Amino acid sequence: MDRIGPPSAVVFDIGGVLGGSADGIFAFAAELGVAATSFAAAYWRHRDAYDLGSAAEDYWNRVANDLGRDLTAAQVRRLDLADAQRWSELAPGAADLIDAIARTGVQLALLSNAPRSMADQVRSSRWGARFPTKLFSCDIGLAKPDPGVYATVEDALGLPATELVFFDDRPVNVLAAQQSGWSAFRWQGPRQCLTDLASAGVAVPGA
Fold first, then answer.
1. Interatomic CA distance for residues 111 and 133, integer angstroms
2. Quick one: how many helices (H) and strands (E) in the chain?
3. Range 79-86 contact pairs with CB under 8 angstroms and sequence separation of 24 or more
4. Contact (Cβ atoms closer than 8 angstroms) between residue 153 and residue 135
5. Alpha carbon distance 152, 22 (integer Å)
6. Which residues have CB under 8 Å from 73's CB, separation 6+?
7. Which of 40, 175, 177, 203 has the fewest Cβ atoms nearer than 10 Å?
8. Which residue from 141, 165, 168 is spatially nearest to 152, judged by alpha carbons?
9. DSSP strand E in the chain: where?
10. If you compute the radius of gyration of the chain from its CA atoms, what whole number of angstroms results?
């Protein structure tokens, strides 16, 4: 069904979009005394299960084991907190973008593949409070690009796919949203976001 009128909600990914990027993970290699590329490989190898709700201790110890290292409980806590804060810290320009979109009156929502530690950071942040609807893979037991994720968002918002606009940095997630009937765009920064919103029917004042 084609949309009649402007979209009712704008949905954002967090990491690599509103929040931090993957570049920061290389800084953690020094904590374990390993090469950055080796750490990154281990970090991503077990990330899917972590995003779906596995315990932080299990995740970080699997990463360490792959690298031939052992972690103390204190190291696990320190790594996990730093990682969660890095992903959930707003990127430059994101706060102004959120404010501008909020002034249009459309609903704002978050949809992120994220572990519980990151979800907790976002929920407790000032900027996270701007988003009444926040869906995290660790809570719903599904991760993008599973089609069920997009149906879950529609149910949470009480809106059909045709009334949703979505931004994500991963093309596979954007494609899955489009296949679910959403207007979806690959994130290319706040300025391009405003252009994409305008093309989708969301006119942001002053943009």
1. 9
2. 11, 5
3. 79/28, 79/31, 80/56, 80/117, 81/117, 82/28, 83/25, 83/28, 83/117, 83/118, 84/115, 84/117, 84/118, 84/120, 84/121, 85/121, 86/20, 86/24, 86/25
4. yes
5. 26
6. 57
7. 203
8. 141
9. 9-12, 107-112, 133-136, 164-168, 183-186
10. 18
Instruction: Return the DSSP state at 193.
Output: H
Name, in order, each residue with C-beta under 8 angstroms of 14's C-beta and a sequence gap of 6 or more. Answer: 87, 88, 110, 112, 114, 118, 122
Residue 1 has what pLDDT? 46
* Residue ranges, the chain, pLDDT below 70: 1-5, 206-207
Distance CA 103, CA 199 (A): 18
> Over 71-123, what HEC string results?
CCHHHHHHHHHHHHHHHHCCCCCHHHHHHHHHCCCCEEEEEECCCHHHHHHHH
* Residue with token string 């009649």: 4
Residue 135, SS3 per DSSP? strand
What is the C-alpha to C-alpha distance for residues 149 and 154, in angstroms, rounded to an integer? 9
Helix (H, G, I), strand (E, B) or coil at 34: coil
State the pLDDT at residue 5.
Answer: 61
Nearest to 186 by CA among 169, 205, 203, 207: 169
Angle between helices 94-102 and 190-200 (to 10 degrees): 20
Res 75: pLDDT: 92
